[in-house]
Write a structure and sequence with these properties.
Length: about 180
Amino acid sequence: MLSENMKRMIYMRKTKASSVREKVCVNEGCKSGGKLIPVQRFRKGRHVCRACCSKQSIQTNDRRINRIVEERLLASEIIQQDEIQFANLLYRSCERAIKSRKYSKNYVNVTCDWTDVVAMMTDLICEKEQFWNEWSKQSTTYLGSDKQLSTRPTLDRIDERGHYTLSNIQMLSYGENSKKA
Ligand SMILES: [Zn+2]
């Protein structure tokens, strides 16, 4: 026979276990609208669901990049106010070109002439007028197409075996770049 105390403990453990199968995401703008959602949609110990977490980190990253673009490129008049979004896209691509060697096997043998993202952008914008014109134009298409990936501007290495250097970089849309590979 189980003691009353024991029965109560088992009951409590059961209700405790079942009560954590669902919880509420504390982010006000959550799609769940404040309703209970399965705990699988949360990372362990978090009170903001996975969807909101990744959305927040995307927004944080976007703000980080815009701040750099404004402080270092707009302030020094390398770009104009209406080019901030184009520069934001270029920042991401340059950052990837500089860092990709570390993270992707396909890029182990590819070197990049720059180690600083803003320095790379400055050279591309100031030294390659046609590149920047094409980048801006393609960015407008991309942003106007609700960010359809095939239209995103990318940094293409003209000679695939070559590196990221000023003379070996051109703008291609993601779609064109994929076809080339
Ligand atoms: Zn949420």
